[in-house]
Write a structure and sequence with these properties.
Number of domains: 1
Helix content: 25-40%
Largest sheet: 10 strands, mixed
CATH superfamily: Alkaline Phosphatase, subunit A
Distance between the termini: 57 Å
CATH architecture: 3-Layer(aba) Sandwich
CATH class: Alpha Beta
Number of strands: 18
Structural class: alpha/beta
CATH topology: Alkaline Phosphatase, subunit A
Number of helices: 16
Length: 535
């Protein structure tokens, strides 16, 4: 146990793919994340849970999402593991650190509560954060977000400032927390959770940053995917024997695309969203330097799931417009033009678009599938650790396997805090993760099997073997040492191995409260029959 506990800054991107940032092979300018990678370590096999709310729940608690009450999203599907709120059987990083002398701060997206506007026990201040600035809801306008909150007070009026842009606001409040902390309690360690919405749809970014990327993606997704893979191999992020997965079947060959200017603009705006986030991370790092805090601050960066292929088509438009979390008008009263329409260039406040499957395929290079799936395209995330005082191997790559539950285990380890069995009268489930500290020095952290489930999509990783399912299709089996891009299933050659892994998965699913997808679909239909009948 250290006499002076380190500060911890946990930074989460939203819907950003495995290869978007420069230090993972992408074209987007991310000098600040690249500097953190060069001064720390990068992981090639760190995994999230494939979807925003479950990933946040697992990240914050060190448990699998179903154990925390967030089995799918923040809708109440009634069974305890799917209630949509952080339950009383888990403890958050903020709660455990606050109880042990830390000051705790959060800036950004929460998205682990069913209640968007009324204070609940599942809100940030009620789950261990001394101060909170951000949105309770998930996606929304970057210019005019709904549910903007400071501590427990709604402050949506602050978005009426013509210069308001949510990514910048998240950064500025994070910087403010660091400065105030240093002035008021310089000898007290702090935990800061910075949860960006970038680059989640809608495609909203400042004009001058979009302009920076004009023409950058003109060669199209087919060529750019190949170029990214080449850079990833050169960086030792990807093994050269892993072949590039095929273009997603929903995407046309770039040469056949009719509205190329519009398609390029979608990726240009997405890139600008990542760029603005990176600049914000640079401001946070500079603030730590100015206050002489950087040396003993562990900075963690990752994304909550893989690139998102959601199309924002007609049905999505109707559902979103019926949702109280979606703005129908801009701050000036102009009607928002919702949906992916090639006649409307994205980026401005009066648009609401996504970048689609083809560009998401680029984001997840070289992998298959996307957000919501447990194939590598859904669960593989860039993962950077930077801690000058304790990570001495600068710029190195780590190929050990790890997942979200390991972050709480690592924080407990480096702070010397004992993970509790009870907390404020609540019985707390045992920690599921394993500390990453041995990996700092490129040692094995004795990680066991990894498990994943989201909406019936499921996977289990056992060493170099991965059993994975695209629900309701059959299971697939891959040797990840030879074929991490999951192109050649070996389930017919190794049926006994697959059966053994499937049994282990089923034992895990039962222990962690995973409800079979067929049963969940019946629950959803009964609870939301009226909503479904509209669309």
């Amino acid at each position: 146990m250290q006499s002076k506990k380190p500060n911890i800054v946990l930074i989460l991107a939203d819907d950003m793919g495995f290869s978007d940032i420069r230090c993972y092979g992408g074209e987007i300018s991310t000098p600040n994340l690249d500097n953190l990678a060069e001064g720390g370590i990068r992981f090639t096999q760190f995994f999230n849970t494939a979807r925003c709310s479950p990933s946040r729940a697992s990240l914050l608690t060190g448990l699998h999402p179903h154990q925390t009450g967030i089995g799918i999203l923040v809708d109440d599907y009634s069974p305890e593991g799917y209630a949509g709120d952080l339950n009383n059987n888990c403890i958050t990083i903020a709660e455990i650190l606050k109880e042990n002398g830390y000051k705790t701060y959060m800036s950004g997206k929460w998205h682990v509560s069913t209640s968007k506007f009324e204070v609940r026990d599942s809100w940030p201040n009620q789950r261990g954060f001394d101060h909170f600035y951000g949105t309770i809801v998930g996606a929304g306008s970057y210019y005019y977000p709904i549910s903007l909150t400071r501590d427990n007070k709604n402050i949506e009026q602050e978005t009426l400032n013509k210069d308001f842009y949510y990514t910048d606001a998240i950064t500025n409040n994070a910087v403010k927390y660091i400065n105030q902390h240093y002035k008021s309690t310089p000898n007290t360690p702090f935990f800061l959770y910075v949860s960006y919405t970038a680059p989640h749809w809608p495609l909203h970014a400042k004009k001058e940053v979009i302009e920076k990327y004009k023409g950058r993606f003109k060669d199209g997704w087919d060529t750019l995917r190949k170029e990214r893979l080449e850079r990833q191999v050169d960086m030792n992020i990807i093994n050269e024997k892993w072949k590039l997965s095929d273009r997603d079947p929903r995407a046309s060959p770039w040469k056949d695309v009719r509205h190329k200017d519009w398609e390029q603009r979608r990726m240009e705006v997405y890139a600008a969203q990542v760029d603005i986030m990176d600049k914000g991370i640079g401001k946070i790092v500079d603030t730590l330097k100015e206050n002489k805090l950087l040396e003993d601050t562990l900075i963690i960066f990752l994304s909550d799931n893989g690139g998102c292929a959601e199309p924002l088509g007609t049905v999505m438009e109707k559902i979103a417009l019926a949702d109280a979390s979606t703005r129908k008008y801009t701050r000036s009263g102009e009607r928002v033009n919702f949906g992916n329409k090639h006649s409307v260039m994205p980026g401005g406040e009066n648009t609401y678009q996504s970048y689609g499957a083809a560009w998401a395929n680029l984001s997840n290079t070289p992998f298959r599938k996307f957000k919501k799936w447990t194939h590598e395209g859904g669960i593989a995330t860039p993962f950077i650790l930077h801690w000058p005082k304790s990570i001495k191997h600068k710029g190195e790559i780590r190929h050990q396997q790890a997942q979200l539950t390991d972050i709480m285990a690592t924080i407990v380890d480096i702070t010397g805090i004992e993970y509790p069995k009870k907390f404020k009268g609540r019985t707390i489930l045992p920690l599921e993760g394993t500390s990453l500290v041995p990996i700092f020095n490129n040692k094995d952290n004795n990680k066991g099997m990894l498990f994943f489930e989201h909406e019936g999509n499921a996977a289990v990783r056992d060493g170099n073997w991965k059993l994975v399912r695209d629900y309701p299709e059959d299971w697939e089996l891959y040797n990840m040492e030879e074929d991490r891009t999951e192109l050649n299933s070996l389930i017919d050659q190794y049926p006994n191995r697959a059966l053994k892994m499937k049994k282990t998965y089923e034992e895990w699913a039962k222990r962690c409260g995973v409800i079979p997808r067929e049963k969940m679909l019946e629950i959803q239909k009964k609870r939301f029959r009226k909503l479904y009948s509209k669309y």
